[in-house]
Design a protein that fits this description.
Elements (H helix, E strand, L loop, with lengths): L2 H6 L4 H14 L10 H8 L4 E12 L2 E8 L12 E8 L2 E8 L10 E6 L6 H8 L5 E4 L16 E7 L3 H13 L5 E8 L8 H10 L3 E7 L9 E2 L4 H8 L6 E6 L1 H13 L7 E5 L21 E6 L4 E5 L4 H7 L17 E6 L2 E2 L8 H5 L2 E3 L4 E2 L3 E4 L1
Parallel strand pairs: 7-8, 7-11, 8-9, 9-10, 11-12, 13-19
Antiparallel strand pairs: 1-2, 1-6, 2-5, 3-4, 3-6, 13-14, 15-17, 15-19, 16-18
The chain binds flavin-adenine dinucleotide (FAD) and FE2/S2 (inorganic) cluster (FES).
């Protein structure tokens, strides 16, 4: 019997042929790319993407959306909720910052990033003040684990956003409502005041048009006469807005202070940790106020950091080691800059660092003396190996 006859009897063979037929009609048939696997992988997982800025949209007085179109080829697909790490050179310093993609994955022509000004910002000020339509930017490919997983998250989702933490949710909300997906979303969005609300009109419009999307705004420092919900997002408020919360999956995204506060409130509302997904927007602002910060190390202390085989630099206790290295022109690989992805793993040969809670250091890294430079603060003179 010929091989071509035997192969037809293999279980699943006919189904695969049908799938190939469907893909030929409606998808992309990668068989034409045979022998070119490296290029196909590079298209899906590029190390770098070069963009042109095609549009800048003023969202609020402190926030702009920067629309990025690829300079070459097409953009890799991503999951709603993922981010790109944007590379910049500011005042001679080469650095990067992650920004969530706020446009939905069903829109493949561009990525939007939505940047909010932070007090005394470095990269955010540069992006908001110095980047214009037609300029070039460079980033990593999309990354991160803050996205919907149909196997574990169910169809009933609660999004808790603080300030610019709305951006990954915007991508998810746009995708679910654009595609009429079978998911129910209730967004609770905390802002300092009503003028800070990003995407407010669009959220209201989508909520009016889609029964499966609801949102509530919670304002912490309301102007006089404000009629809406005020205060903080507490367990009590969640229960009153959401009703039965036991079967829902919670997603939490925002600045560190909100992440800590709401994380506690979600736990107080009786939601088990396995039902809570979190994304923290970068290192804490005032690390010396974090639990466990060593008494006796002042926030303006400066330590010596010797890079084995390289130079010795000064590093401030209150600044992540990665930033001190970048200030000195030493750039190490980075992606999340929030202690999660492990790309900035650095060997600590001697000395001590403070690492805030939330840093996802593998046990083997801890045992063998590795740290995540993006979320490690020197509290002693150090020797490191990059
Ligand atoms: C996964 C993820 C997604 C995010 N998504 C968004 C988003 O969608 N929108 C958004 O607005 N933000 C987002 N962020 C936060 C964003 O990445 C930045 O942290 C934020 O824009 C602040 O950056 P900054 O450089 O302006 O300020 P900081 O990093 O806080 O810098 C503050 C100060 O540090 C000093 N400094 C910092 N770096 C250097 C350097 N290399 N050299 C010299 N001095 C330096 C300067 O004195 C500066 O004034 C996200 C963060 C993460 C982790
Ligand atoms: S850059 Fe991801 S852990 Fe440091």
């Amino acid at each position: 019997m010929a091989f071509s006859d035997v192969v037809k009897d293999i279980e699943g063979y006919q189904e695969i042929l049908k799938d190939i037929e469907i893909l030929r009609k409606y998808g992309f048939d990668y068989s034409s790319q045979k022998g070119n696997i490296g290029q196909v992988i590079e298209n899906f997982h590029p190390k770098r993407i070069e963009f042109s800025v095609s549009e800048i949209i003023e969202e609020t007085a402190s926030t702009k959306t920067i629309r990025l179109v690829p300079k070459h080829g097409s953009l890799p697909p991503f999951q709603a909720g993922q981010y790109i790490n944007v590379y910049v050179e500011v005042g001679g310093v080469r650095t990067s910052r992650p920004y969530s993609i706020s446009s939905p994955p069903n829109q493949a022509a561009f990525y939007d990033i939505t940047v909010r000004r932070v007090g005394d910002g470095f990269v955010s000020d540069y992006l908001l003040d110095d980047i214009n339509v037609g300029d070039s930017l460079e980033s990593t490919g999309p990354a991160g684990n803050f996205y919907y997983n149909p196997l574990f998250h169910g169809n009933d989702l609660v999004f808790i956003a603080g300030g610019s933490g709305i951006t990954p949710f915007m991508s998810m909300i746009r995708e679910v409502t654009d595609k009429n997906l079978n998911r129910r979303i209730h967004l609770i969005y905390g802002c300092d005041n009503p003028d800070d609300v990003i995407f407010g009109d669009e959220l209201s419009r989508r909520s009016r048009m889609h029964a499966n999307f609801t949102w509530d705004l919670v304002v912490s420092t309301p102007p006089e006469g404000y009629q809406g919900i005020t205060g903080f997002i507490t367990a009590e408020l969640m229960k009153s807005l959401l009703g039965d919360i036991s079967s829902r999956t919670f997603y939490l995204c925002g600045p560190e202070a909100m992440y800590t506060f709401c994380g506690r409130e979600i736990a107080a509302a009786g939601i088990p940790p396995r039902k809570v997904r979190v994304e923290m927007f970068g290192p804490p602002k005032e690390v010396f106020r974090q639990p466990g910060w060593p008494q006796g190390v002042s926030s303006d202390a400066v330590f010596k950091v010797a890079v084995r085989g390289g130079r010795t630099i000064d590093a401030r206790a209150c600044e992540p080691l990665m930033i001190s290295l970048e200030r000195a022109g030493i750039v190490i690989p980075a992606l999340c800059r929030s202690g999660e992805c492990s790309l900035c793993r650095t060997k600590l040969i001697s000395g001590k660092v403070y690492q805030p809670s939330g840093v996802k250091l593998r046990k083997s890294d801890r045992d063998f003396g590795y740290i995540h430079a993006c979320m490690s603060y020197p509290i002693d003179d150090l020797e490191i190996m990059i």
